[in-house]
Amino acid sequence: MSRHRRKRKLPNFPVRVTVESLSHDGRGVAHVEGKAVFIDGALPGEEASFLYTGRSRRYDEGRVCEVFSPSEHRVEPRCAHFGVCGGCSLQHMAPSQQILSKQQTLLDNLERIGHVRPETVLPPLTGPHWHYRYKARLGVRHVHKKGRVLVGFREKRRSYIADLARCEVLVEAVGERLEELAELVQAMEARERLPQIEVAAGDAAVALVFRHLDPLVEADLERLRDYARGSGLHVWLQPGGPDTAAPLWPVDSSLSYCLPSFDLELRFLPTDFTQVNPAINRAMVDQALALLDLSGRERVLDLFCGIGNFTLPIAREAGSVTGVEGDAGLVQRARDNARANGIDNAGFAVADLGRDPAGQAWLAGSWDRVLVDPPRSGAQEMMPHLAALRPERIVYVSCHPSSLARDAGLLVNEHGYRLVTAGVMDMFPHTAHVESMALFELP
Questions:
Q1: Rounded Cα gap, residues 106 and 426, in angstroms
Q2: Which residue from 157, 245, 143 is spatially nearest to 192, judged by alpha carbons?
Q3: How confident is the model at residue 374, as a pLDDT?
Q4: Fewer beta carbons within 10 angstroms: which end of the chain, N or C?
């Protein structure tokens, strides 16, 4: 007998179900003979049939075949590639319902994982639903079977680059040029050794960072310069890690965005981390500052500060602020931005916030307010140290509801803070990504 398990044969007939809920990745959830099935393209409340696409011991997967009773929230997807491209998962759901679903995901996570409930729920922050995405990484692949280059996001749950003509969520200057970019790379000698184009847009310019595995010949460099001149897009080259990125044309390429409420302009490199949605970012910063409730005297600590997105607005309204970040390059950009905006009450430190910060100079003394904006993994390591500082208010900005819920549980159930309010922000419309903010206070 073979020691290898046989691959299970999938049923090839449609199965009719009632869709019960929405999964964390935007798929409809139903049950067949007690077993959960995650169904692409299905919405809660719908009667639908699906075909199996995968089976495992704990759950099965499928894609919708026919919807017999559509949800009142079902809409026609705007993108012709929806369902194939993995960039979006919820274009078939009305945006007004998408954000309510995300809000419920946040509240469910807080209660299920953190065993906490906010005393109030913040109104969702919403913005544009199309061409909102100012940061992205596009895959590039020369597909021999097609005889051409593809540029775009990967297919849904597959490693292949989706064959896209345009993208409805990317900044318009790039979203409408995917075929143009594919033709550009197709004409280059380096087309087999150019795996990625990073998109980064500021308020006044859009940059494309071409990742190349080998040095480019002069003919390819000239093609890129010509494209930059003709399109108005800035072109950068990246032969190695992010620190190797440098402008090709124009040679003085510079990106920045403004925070008008605070009279600030922040400069950044196209490979720096910045928020993908400028409209939501502005609203998010405004809300965070309102929750911090600053009077001009407070000492504020800003953890995971990046290029100063929250630090510099805080400096405008607090007595002083210290921003801490693990990436030395981002900290340098934050210092430069403080100087360029005439801010002299902001200090910065480089520290790995995923490790025990005991002994760090910035952790000494007293802090009246703390803002935390961690990566998806959250700030679990920092929770006992923050609680020991006993700041009056902690504002937590999160890009993953389960890590926020875990950390909220620690602050409330182990360290005595109140979860005063929490709410979501539509940073990534048409995706299942949940961005949120919470305020904690001492009793």
A1: 12
A2: 143
A3: 97
A4: N
pLDDT at residue 149 greater than cutoff 70: yes
Residues 224 and 328 in one domain: no
Q: What's the pTM value of the predicted model, to 2 decimals?
A: 0.94
**Residue 380 pLDDT:** 94
Please report, as a single letter, which amino acid is at residue 236.
W
- Asked if residues 169 and 182 have their Cβ atoms less than 8 Å apart, the reply is no
Do 329 and 418 reside in the same domain of the chain?
yes
CA distance 316 to 264: 9
311 lies in a domain? yes
Report the amino acid identity of residue 295. Answer: S
Residue type, 167: C
Distance CA 133, CA 200 (A): 9
pLDDT at position 1, please?
A: 41
Asked if residue 149 and residue 58 are part of one domain, the reply reads: no
Give the list of residues 6+ apart from residue 73 with CB closer than 8 angstroms, or none. Answer: 43, 93, 94, 97
At 7 the pLDDT is 58
218 within a domain of the structure (yes/no): yes
| Residue of 48 and 358 predicted with greater confidence | 48
For the chain, the 3-state helix, strand and coil shares in percent, each to the nearest 5, are 25, 30, 45
What's residue 429's pLDDT?
A: 98
DSSP 36-69: EEEEET--TT-EEEEEEEEE-SS-EEEEEEEEEE
CA distances to 184, 186, 205, 315, 365 from 180, rounded to whole Å, are: 6, 10, 19, 43, 56
pLDDT above 80: residue 5: no
Q: 105 with 189, same domain?
A: no
89 vs 281: CA distance, rounded Å: 22
The residue type of 288 is A
CA 175 to each of CA 79, 113, 199, 431: distance values in angstroms, whole numbers, following the listed order: 11, 38, 10, 17
State yes or no: is 258 an active-site residue: no
Which strands form 435-441's sheet, in the order they lie side by side?
A: 120-121, 418-425, 435-441, 393-398, 369-372, 299-303, 320-325, 346-350
Structure tokens at 410: 């620690």
Q: Is the pLDDT of residue 243 over 60?
A: yes
Residues 113 and 171 reside in one and the same domain: no
Q: What are phi and psi of 209, to 5 degrees?
A: -105, 110
Question: Measured between alpha carbons, how far is 108 from 28 in angstroms, rounded to an integer?
Answer: 17
- In single-letter form, the type of residue at position 179 comes to E
Longest alpha-carbon distance in the chain: 76
Rounding to the nearest 10 degrees, give the CA dihedral for residues 87, 90, 96, 99: -70
Same domain, 170 and 36: no
